[in-house]
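Known limitations

Files may contain more than one protein. Parsers should not assume a single record per file. Below, a two-record file is shown to illustrate correct handling: read the sequence, read the token line, then continue until end of file.
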Amino acid sequence: MAPYCVLAARLRHALNSGVRRYHVAPVLCQRAKVAMSHFEPNEYINYEKLEKNINIVRKRLDRPLTLSEKIVYGHLDDPAKQEIERGKTYLRLRPDRVAMQDATAQMAMLQFISSGLPKVAVPSTIHCDHLIEAQSGGEKDLKRAKDINQEVYNFLSTAGAKYGVGFWKPGSGIIHQIILENYSYPGVMLIGTDSHTPNGGGLGGVCIGVGGADAVDVMAGIPWELKCPKVIGVKLTGKLSGWTSPKDVILKVAGILTVKGGTGAIIEYHGPGVDSISCTGMATICNMGAEIGATTSIFPYNERMKKYLGKTGRADIAALADEFKQHLVPDSGCQYDQVIEINLSELKPHINGPFTPDLAHPVSDIGAVAEKEGWPVDIRVGLIGSCTNSSYEDMGRSAAVAKQALAHGLKCKSMFTITPGSEQIRATIERDGYAKILREVGGLVLANACGPCIGQWDRKDIKKGEKNTIVTSYNRNFTGRNDANPETHAFVTSPEIVTALSIAGTLKFNPETDYLTGADGKKFKLEAPDADELPKLEFDPGQDTYQYPPKDGSGQRVDVSPTSQRLQLLEPFDKWDGKDLEDMLILIKVKGKCTTDHISAAGPWLKFRGHLDNISNNLLIGAINIENGKANSVRNALTQEFGPVPDTARYYKKMGVKWAVIGDENYGEGSSREHAALEPRHLGGRVIITKSFARIHETNLKKQGLLPLTFADPADYNKIHPVDKLSIVGLKDFAPGKPLKCIIKHPNGSQETIMLNHTFNESQIEWFQAGSALNRMKELQQKSS
């Protein structure tokens, strides 16, 4: 029998939609409320408001809506008046909640403190997952991280307590797994300060990665701006089977769309094939959608999601979602801006890489391709887990492969590591024997944290500069990302394929067709793995790692020492002086791919994420200078000497000289880290000119008072040389949709003019004029008071 609260919701919904109107007692309505999560019993899911907003917009647009549109438009601040045009207008939205990982939460909370507000306006959480380095195993690594990062953890804990933010302690797990287990639900709009926040789309939510300044807007109760996304439909037919996994869907899509093909769009999966994918499998697909530049990805609400909600203690949410299901699936006849169709029955296991996540290969081909390209075929390390693939099902399928090898007396030829996604997953796979099997085959179980996926890996088996291959079930494989070694060829694939390849020790092994030789000398073939998507028993929650914020945190003290090397209170950036930006020097003209890892490296630099001046010492140290083909070596235009990029930027700042960066395509792809925008602003940069930008980075630059501009003619990239000076003119007439003029002054005295485009709207222009979005927020607060 349905719970009383759900019966009340059903009755109210039915009566409100019928011809006759009946009175529903307020007590009955009150009991029908369902909490967003167990941790916030007084914050309720508001499907009624979602429904109301959707109906207003549907009437205005007079057409069927995609699922993405329903949830996005259902969170509009003013659905009756908001201008809506896919890919063009900026929407003002009211997200339901905010999530921050510890590396980005430091700067986000420092900015929130600067706002002067007493408490967050929406439910918010901090998750400690980025600062734990993989060395010798879970327990030891966690203990070491707590000691090394005590100052930062104390800051985040006390700041959370003071401002009403829930705090997940180190060891609790990776932010995206925690969100899926506790906070995501069908129809939610959640923003998170990590690019893989779209993981929550596996539970039918619009979950979007943003920079810390965007999170501050939402926590401050200010409508959040997002360019109205286009919608790319991916129709799935057929059924997953054999060695093919959910990961192969997104690996295939990445190969089709490339790293920038999803920019400005939501990827919406639909079709009969959806039902053959588990809820956590859908999350895997949405998670890695970040690698194609997508705003987010989403699946329609179905029985697999309902099953997962029930198993994670949220059957009441599933029951309520059932009542409003018509708003949690796309309308029949809705139109997509682009449609891709994939037959899951024909899809083969894939492996993507190296050095970019969109270089897709069938597993059956990778050995031959690697030999042809000169990539190392021997696998040094196999790594499974991370936020992308660390579910119970993932661990079970990997264990199923490992168990077969053990039965024939084999262990992994490659080093092998396992990263559980959460404390709940760790405890459950320990109880159910998966962890034991994975250890027996040669695996090392790491802490419940990001670890090697983000470069938190104290790798000892090779020297820097040594050419080698690793295979992972991660999502991102940029040069040097996992171990800071530019010669590491990293490939991404499913956990079960990683396990099989680690047992074989070579990229030349195809588990679908090839044989292994057991300890007895007999050949055998691995069978396709099969495992439960959810445990037969309830999940084991493991240790309690959550800190509730107190009801009143006003008396909580938050200390930031002025001598700290890890934390630094923020000073406001200078306002625009009302003049054109004249005679700027070029700090660097970047050649080729420039991700946020190139602009603001992670790994050992993570410890400075709360100290803007210290972390600015990594500015653009990974970017390749077109002038000499080297990283972290640029000409100082004032001294004519070559030196590190950060030192040169500091010299220009000291001399009062403004500077610009010239970039290539999809500049700033990858992580959501706003440090890649804060650092150039802090060191005196004013303009970033590129052929194109990744969405999150472009927004982050605007938020910090910089001008992200694009060449009206991409060929004009070739007209600018590192020794030139640039002037941006016409800023007094800066307006939405109006290009800006750039005058290029060459050393020989000649000059030429090019046009630059931008995507600023009126409020974003105000950020630039005020010096930053945070400065503008303070101006508005002062006016209102």
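...continuing to the second record:
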Amino acid sequence: MTHEEHHAARTLGVGKAIAVLTSGGDAQGMNAAVRAVVRVGIFTGARVFFVHEGYQGLVDGGNHIREATWESVSMMLQLGGTVIGSARCKDFREREGRLRAANNLVKLGITNLCVIGGDGSLTGADTFRSEWSDLLNDLQKAGKITAEEAKKSSYLNIVGLVGSIDNDFCGTDMTIGTDSALHRIIEIVDAITTTAQSHQRTFVLEVMGRHCGYLALVTSLSCGADWVFIPECPPDDDWEDHLCRRLSETRTRGSRLNIIIVAEGAIDKHGKPITSEDIKNLVVKRLGYDTRVTVLGHVQRGGTPSAFDRILGSRMGVEAVMALLEGTPDTPACVVSLSGNQAVRLPLMECVQMTKEVTKAMNEKKFEEAMKLRGRSFMNNWEVYKLLAHVRPPVSKTGLHTVAVMNVGAPAAGMNAAVRSTVRIGLIQGNRVLVVHDGFEGLAKGQIEEAGWSYVGGWIGQGGSKLGTKRTLPKKSLEQISANITKFNIQGLIIIGGFEAYTGGLELMEGRKLYDELCIPFVIIPATVSNNVPGSDFSVGADTALNTICTTCDRIKQSAAGTKRRVFIIETMGGYCGYLATMAGLAAGADAAYIFEEPFTIRDLQANVEHLVHKMKTTVKRGLVLRNEKCNENYTTDFVFNLYSEEGKGVFDSRKNVLGHMQQGGSPTPFDRNFATKMGAKAMNWMTGKIKESYRNGRIFANTPDSGCVLGMRKRALVFQPVTELKDQTDFEHRIPKEQWWLKLRPILKILAKYEIDLDTSEHAHLEHVSRKRSGEAPV
């Protein structure tokens, strides 16, 4: 990036003013977005204003529109809801109200508006924008503003960020608040599961989502529910019989509980509402099960934002400021959103139009159309749910093929969910599924047993690895492994694990030259807190670890708020991979995050200390520094702590914390459960196909590179990549991929911590169009 370009980012906002408001229902993560808009706005030289109480504040003006400072958004990141308030506003719907709002903005010289809210709020913003010049004319005629003022504010730029827990906005993979709402729901489902098992109960849970079943659908995938009712896909007319049969089948298989999830907008094929009470009465009347209803209500909007929502809010806030400041009178109002892990800009009205089309399709009872409009990711969730919840496993004992499943490497939350879906999808397809205990070591020693449907019952929400996992690699025991492959007639291997799973896969590939038995298809599902497996942007378990670090950092920051002038140095896991340190730094609002991938010198450490000394002179009297465990062999956590303690003498005192193995434990987050479930299903589907392909003279023989793959998430899709092809993309000495997508988020971390650095504006989201995206969305 040239010096000129860097200078441009630093002065992009000079002489401009931005107003930020939150409107409609609140959503966790809105504060992260507000904080990012304020800080990046100030970074570019613009003035930023808070609008309190949504559009109402815009209309009322006066004290409702206040200039924001850098410090005024401190400690906001971990708060749920919206600190600047949100209100449903009737006045803004009338032209009179919009006139008053325009007047207030012109008087303050604000021509950029960032609106964080649902589709209603964003439509309102677009109307405001299209009327802008008429409104100014009227104000000028009435003598409320001068010609000079009207000329200065000749056009209004608008950028929207979607904050809604329903995830009901077309064109965005995830809206701000959805992930946190899922966290709240899953916490409750987990709690209810324990009591339901004690009493053999059936629980009917009603979750939010008047027109959109996303929360209900993902919840049912993440807790292995027996049935889900969503507005987009009403059940068949004989659903009562089907449901009761399904519940009694689950009981006869030995399960002590049933869970039914209902979206508040659930309907039948004729548009008649299906309520949680209806379902309860049906189950009690027909089956006589002890049935309870829990309506979750506003709990789902509450609580702390999850790590994902904080990072999403922060990234969207940065992108929103850039979109506003680069706007011209000709750019349409846009929404900033995330597709896969890429920031994208989409024309606001195209998204709103599509969102309305879904409602229209549903009103006209064109349910298939509605499902399609929701996008591929929604469809995929539905397909996997249907398979796991509605297909009866075949009764015949003779399995079609024999597939073995194992865990390798360190434990990661979500491994059990992956094993569960792999086993069950395998059984549904008519395969015989074996589970291997203790990784490659167990494969060599023959610690192998057959798994039935109920073997993995209740596994989805359990942390760690129930099968047991070891870091041992297969190379030294290829002979015993080959013998057991023959003995147990294993025709395919699904390996769920971290970097060892990947290197183990490479060793199996090499071993094929010596042992014919190893010529069977295998696939690796990345599962490690470090997120360092080549071929995938995310690995199962990293999201859970990130949330654990985040919660801990929140608590630590809170303890510092009482003592003033304290800096915490926190060591995170990750081997040489700086993913956890960087993402946790973004999510917890750290002042610095030291990682191996971005080398640092004593000068950098000195600059960080000086930066903190400077910070202690403001109203924010605490600091948070993250250090990845292997970022530098000489600048250890103790060294950094000692340096900060010495240099900070008389200004601040330092404390250190090594987070350790708590990062590998805990119950998996909704993201990890859902991701693991879908990866497991996808892997088993691939495996069944590959085994059929590899039949040679009555036995399996797979010797091509594409018969040993890593299943990974790349940008917007799940893809199978041969392990041998990934070799060139791997730094084996440090056990990390050579290129890592999240490194480009590092500048955001530094800007939000008030460093005068280059904001690399070359990594830009250009305006895309929605229609094209329908087919290209991530099948996550």
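Parsers that stop after the first record will miss the second one. For reference, the second record is described as follows. Residues 17-175+305-358 form a domain with the Rossmann fold fold (CATH 3.40.50.450).
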